[in-house]
Automatic annotation (TrEMBL):
Family note: Belongs to the major facilitator superfamily. Monocarboxylate porter (TC 2.A.1.13) family.
Protein name: Putative transporter ESBP6
Gene encoding the protein: ESBP6_0
Entry membrane topology: Multi-pass membrane protein
Keywords: Membrane, Transmembrane, Transmembrane helix
Residue ranges annotated for the Major facilitator superfamily (MFS) profile domain, each copy included: 53-437
Amino acid sequence: MTNERTITLDHSEKTFTDLEAISNESKLSYSQETTDHREESSSTEDEHDGGYGWFIVLGAFLVQVTSFGTITSVMQDYYEQHYFSQVSNAALNLSFVGTLSMVCLNGISPLAQILVSTFGIRIVMIIGTLFIALGLEMASFATQIWHLYLTQGIVFGIGAAFIYVSIMGVAPQWFSRRRGLALGIIASGSGIGGLAIPFIMTAVNQQLGPAWSYRILGFVCLFCDVVACLTIRERVPLPRKRLSQMINFSVMKDARFVLFVVASNIGLFGYFIPYFFLPSYATYIGLSETEGSALVAVSAAGNFVGRIICGFLADRIGKINTNLIFTFISSLSCLLIWTFAGSYGSLMAFSVVFGLTSGSFFALISPLTAYLLGMELFPSGLSLLLLSNVIAVFGSNIASAVESSVSSAPFFSYKMFAGVAYLIGAILLLILKLNLNRNLFAKV
């Protein structure tokens, strides 16, 4: 116990100076509790580092394909070019389809956590699976933009929240030393989705139209999510909790976790902008729709590889170090490559670099939350972090509004907005790193 208390005191010395001035016995107790949970998790999970957990990785990987991978498809550009070309501000209005999906995915996460605690993980995942398939099938009958808001935006988003929160709360239970790698592989699923779906949607659109594109995509998502429902299993079944215990708001007292929340939100303002607007920018400079889809696909492929690399490096050089490096490179890719890109080759270079580095937050959201809070508080921390990310999903809409209101060159505002957002996020992550350990080269 003496060693544990020493660790707690060392840990408290690394918090902000102003917080040290107002710290009291209750905060020291909370810090000790968090450290104890982290140490207990580390000691008990080493013997369960994998095994059946790799089946959990498979299921969670497929969930990433059907949730985030579907949101970053190219349907916005297709509808803008062929269905709503005469609609004023069509690009801005259509961007809210993906935004609504992300708002629901993030905003409903606390409700999903409550339902998991009440009814169990498998039931909530089944409900989410049905909502995802239903939302996409209903979207196939859309004739107005608001139809897409209701179907692909809200119904699909609710289903994505239910199934994502359910399985991501289980996956970290099965890993300790290789947790970063496992969760990096899981997060790469959205890259595979973003890689395959644009080509599927474009090819089917050209042959059968958008209605059958949505129907086929709905059945693909149904199959993937059913597999996830069949593979899901808790290593240690979670006890049923009272409503007041399901979401523990005390995690917001942890200054380091709050700083991570702020850094992630600001950085994520720039994440979806290239995925939503790169195809439109490609057609603006004279490239074909196929080339625009290829740019998104290459970026998604890079995202797939980058998230695995991110998880691998996180286990070796530290989770925060990895997130910081990747976030900073993402900023440079927007400010120094995309800003001056005027050809297919230069845009392809941007797609590769941005794809490899931009997904670090999604790859590390679970291991970083578990690292900062411990496994006991991890579900509450993850739910509240996702809820806070509702703010960030409006980044593409804010960027569109800025683009519409300024007289700069077309798409210039998008490039600056994404680059600066990532740069600020990187600066905040650097502050968090130095707060945890002032040695610049320490593994954090």
